[in-house]
Amino acid sequence: MSQTVDSKLPEAPEAQPGLLLTKLQPPPERKQTVARERLVQRLRPGPGVKLTVVAAPAGCGKTTLLGAWHDAEARLRPVGWVTLDDGDNDAVVLWTHVLEALQRVCPDLAVSPLPQAVGSARVVSVLLPRLVNELIEQGDVALVLDDFHRLSPGISRDSIAWLVDHAPSTFQLVLGTRSEPALSLGSLRAHGELIEVRAEELGFTPDEVEALLNGSLELDLAREEIDVLVNRTEGWPAGIYLAGLSLAGAVDRKAFVNTFGGSSRNVVDFLAGEVLEAHDPATQSLMLQSSILERFCGSLCDAVLEQDGSGAVLDELSRTNLFLIPLDDHSTWYRFHHLFAQLLQVELEHREPGLARTLHRRAFAWHRECGSIDEAVEHGLEAEAFVEVSELIKSTWFSYTQDARHATVVAWLERLPASIRRQDAYLLAIQAWVLMLSGRHDAATSAIDEVERLRPFDPEPLPDGFSSIEANLAVLRGMITWGDFRASTQSARRAAELEGPLSPWRALICVAGGWCLYFLGEFLEADEWLAEATEPALGLEQWRVAVSSLVGRSLVAEALGRTDEQILLAARAAALEREHGLDGADSEMLVALGAALESRGKLEEALLAFERGARVLRPAGQPASLALALIRQAAALRALGREAAAEAVIEEARSVVGSCPDPGILASWLQDIERPPRTQRRNGDATLSERELSVLRALAGPLSQRDIGRELYLSHNTIRSHTRSIYRKLGASSRAEALQLARERGLI
């Protein structure tokens, strides 16, 4: 994603894709900051407090208060900090920052897999349970999430609600927000687990106003003038501070105090007439034009204003203006207080209508050159530079999918005008990919239909390595199975033909095709496809693709009765996951591990793996893998004699398999476990169906499995399925062992 940056430009503060270090910095203590010990003490948690909410409109001093509380509390225990923004609506971005913030204050906290490995859909089912378990070991820990109102309804906000419900009692979450957080506050309040600070408590008292205006700003106001300001502003901190800036240059302070409009509706007039006018024209221009930037440094401001020397002006402003907030320890990056930025933007549009779009375009160019793609796209969209943004998305989207940031790319594409997106086959194909990877099957299918409408396609190679749009679509259709395995297999074969053996996508194509063939019961061919994927994937460091190939091969080996190979492949896949921090990223891994445990007679452990696999796979959106986990879970429950639990799981499996247009061998496997068990043996150790007993008797003879199928008028795949079930129920790993155990138990 990053590009080579000219050495004169400061490095954008990103430690890894999607991580902005400036978001992890609490606001620094400033000499103008008023000590508010009464509120800091109010935020001190008592026993059992899980959530603290500081909720008030803009300009009430939420962030300043939380910063002071953070500094005081951090002397007693670890306290992490994250300032949220719109990008955190991608749950991968949110939890990347939260984990980094927690690990900075709790170095021993280790959570695997990372958000980039599990993706948004599985953050709650995979990542957060592991985080909660780690937090239990850390003792007292707190986390501040400022600007919580920036989270829209969706996975990110839901994941925070889950954390509140499940976090240990030693963990305290602190939210700063302009609006009421959509969390279960009533229940927390009833149980004494909530601290709330609202706008009325955040208002400045007369003593605090005097400390600011006469202490920090040295205005020497009379007490009655201070009382008037408190009354006119109702203690609103931002209004009082703006009044202080204006009073510094006022000739008749008493008249100013008596006419100051301290409400947010009137502040813009004072900002334009008093605060800005107190600065020289160059500084006014810098403040107004940089207000369109979420964060900025001297070099960025120079580019946006087309001038030099902005860094020195920012440094001076940060010493005198409470609304310019440093974002790092080196006074390199800054942001304006959000309310102040909004006021400046209103005044900018008033003074120079339409200039904001030009400024956004310049910011787009700067961020694109620096490689800070998220901000480049944001400014490009604001500048309505849609063609340039489209080209940037085309050249970077794949790197975002590598970090599971599908939601970010989806949001970008949805903000492009439909007239541009719907006429560009490549943009639509990208949209189909990220929707598919997000588990949004219907939307992805609609996007593919939109691409097909634009045939014939440009035959030129694509920036992401595909040989053409047609090849791109063929690979996508091979992956977007949703239980239609024959159609997906045909697409995988077509993709392999179009891309050829040297394509960087070859391994992914082979994995997609191999899994489809597995679910069709074509185990030998499935093994060939999956085996072809493993080494190329490892060579290209496509770790997840390599794990998926090994997992698939382990399950294929099981179906073919190759127990030793099955166990070795599952172990190799698990080791590869651990080595590259992907533990739990491949949900089918749990099914393969369960199957390997089952083959070794460890049925209880296998059941736990199947149950966990089903739990993790439910939110992922792919029915085939979920159905496989459920069928294996139900079979294990039935083998353990837990009929009621097995029936409940079978019912869910029946619904999932029924949603598949072409479920392949899943239908046969489901049918096998749907039959009520009938005891057919003397000592009660194994429960075989009538059909399984027929197959078992045939296995006692000289016929091969294929010949047994002909004799019983069953397909070879069905015989394999029955044989595997017989081995599992008898606790055998081979035909000879199964026959010996069957004879011992009087089954034959």
How does this model look, in words?
It is a single chain. The chain is mainly alpha-helical and 748 residues long. Among the domains are: 35-202, Rossmann fold, CATH 3.40.50.300; 206-278, no CATH class; 690-744, Winged helix-like DNA-binding domain superfamily/Winged helix DNA-binding domain (Arc Repressor Mutant, subunit A), CATH 1.10.10. Helices cover 61% and strands 5% of the residues. It has 39 helices and nine strands. Helix 15 (298-305) crosses helix 16 and helix 20 runs antiparallel to helix 21. The model is unreliable at 1-15 and 678-685 (pLDDT under 50).
Care to give the gist of this entry?
The protein has 748 residues and is mainly α. It has 39 helices and 9 strands. A hairpin with a 7-residue loop joins strand 8 (324-326) and strand 9 (334-336).
